[in-house]
Recover the amino acids of this structure.
């Protein structure tokens, strides 16, 4: 029988890559320190096969985070952001929190492996969505306009990931996190006049 070549060989390689990335996402989401051997075992492939597609752990972590964020972006794209900007933000935060909670360990692995610039680049889609919503809320008069928009967008990111870290450390009940995140973000974005006098 002649060796497998052409489209079939490529299809086999693509399936192998998909299996490795899925295993990396699962392994790193459980243990951010998961090794290449751990991931190869979870993917049911040999080290040589894994290294044939991903020459080092950083490239594999990058691929896993990219895939997770792509899936998350597809989920967030379905969130109804019509109507009042504050209500829309609550909807977006609820959906975002569930995704962040699932991928906290994966993000920890990425932060320990990838440059901060790369992580920010991979989160661009979510940042653009949040920025658009905040700008709309500013036009509606329900979000503050006295601070830079980039800072406000980053605050949402920090609060989400900070809450995930607190849950992971056992300092915040997981069942309370979504409410705490939403309350904190909404309070932070509220116009100064909406904050109670000290």
């Amino acid at each position: 029988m002649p060796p497998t070549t052409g489209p079939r060989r490529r299809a086999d390689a693509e399936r192998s890559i998909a299996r490795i990335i899925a295993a990396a996402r699962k392994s790193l989401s459980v243990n951010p320190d998961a090794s290449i051997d751990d991931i190869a075992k979870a993917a049911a492939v040999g080290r040589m096969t894994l290294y044939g597609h991903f020459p080092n752990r950083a490239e594999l972590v990058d691929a896993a985070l990219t895939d997770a964020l792509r899936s998350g972006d597809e989920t967030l794209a379905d969130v109804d952001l019509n109507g009042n900007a504050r209500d829309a933000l609550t909807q977006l935060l609820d959906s975002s929190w569930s995704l962040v909670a699932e991928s906290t360990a994966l993000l920890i692995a990425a932060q320990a492996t990838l440059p901060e610039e790369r992580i920010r680049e991979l989160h661009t889609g979510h940042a653009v969505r949040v920025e658009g919503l905040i700008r709309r809320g500013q036009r509606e008069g329900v979000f503050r306009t006295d601070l830079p928009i980039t800072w406000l967008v980053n605050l949402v990111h920090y609060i989400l990931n900070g809450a995930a870290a607190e849950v992971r450390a056992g300092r915040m009940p997981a069942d309370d996190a979504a409410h705490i995140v939403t309350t904190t973000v909404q309070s932070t974005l509220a116009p100064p006049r909406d904050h109670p006098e000290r």
Q: What stands out?
A: The chain has a mean pLDDT of 87. The two ends are 82 Å apart (CA to CA).
